[in-house]
Amino acid sequence: MSELQMGVVESRFADIVWQREPVSTLELVKLCESEFNWKKTTTYTVLKRLCEKGIFQNNKGTVTSLISREEFYARQSKKFVDETFGGSLPAFLAAFTHRNELSKEEIDELTRMIEKYKG
Q: Which domains are delineated in the chain?
């Protein structure tokens, strides 16, 4: 499996699959033609790339995910924190909140998450 990462266009394509799976390749071609103005070959090329990365599979013309959207972005987030902040979530949050003030709702949600993991 290739490294799990996607560019902006691949991410938009992946969202289409995740929102509609299982989706036929025929329907996917039509959706991508409408959404991106792609030709059939472009859709198949992007699909093939994402299948090779282990994100999706194309089984007899039906596309499904091998990894959920949530799992994909959880892995991307962990990789970012690991590479940028030495794996320190507190260091990431400190950097994030340095310029982005948290709302009361966000603080409450973070507090709930911490309490959940404490217990």
A: 8-69 (1.10.10.10), 88-118 (no CATH)
